[in-house]
Amino acid sequence: MRAEEVKAILTPLYDNYEKHCQSGDIDKCMDFYHPDAVMVEKGKTAAYGKAQNVFTKNTKNQKEKNFLCLSIVFVSYIRDALVNLWERTGPQKFTKSNEKYEGCDDYLVLTCDNTMDSAKRGKETAKMVQIWKKDHGKWVIYHEECDVKK
């Protein structure tokens, strides 16, 4: 797939996603993520998947229930990471530069420099990589990685 084709697909998706990030509508942001997505702040944190209630798992095995209760302590979900980011930054505006677009039938990649300007933290710059995956005919974020420079 040519870079122009990938850009034509990703630009409206990214712009719509960013609109919800700016307004703090985390539930709408989550619509853009794959159920098994990973969000990485390079060298600092990682979050996996959408927020889930693991306690709803239907099991009669008490040992398994205990494991599930313990494991939730160690799992950071993307929704939680976005809520935490919003609490630390407030409204935010993202500006992309040096964009590079690549892709194939089932995966699209955006690599760029990204500047986030927020009321609470001012300007922060980062190298960003987003890998979008086609899932049931819809493009969703499968991997998102930021290397924050500040």
Automatic annotation (TrEMBL):
SUPFAM superfamilies named in the record: NTF2-like (SSF54427)
InterPro entries, sorted: NTF2-like_dom_sf
Entry superkingdom? Eukaryota
Q: What is this protein called?
A: DUF4440 domain-containing protein
Q: Which organism is it from?
A: Cylicocyclus nassatus
Q: What does UniProt list as this organism's lineage? A: Eukaryota, Metazoa, Ecdysozoa, Nematoda, Chromadorea
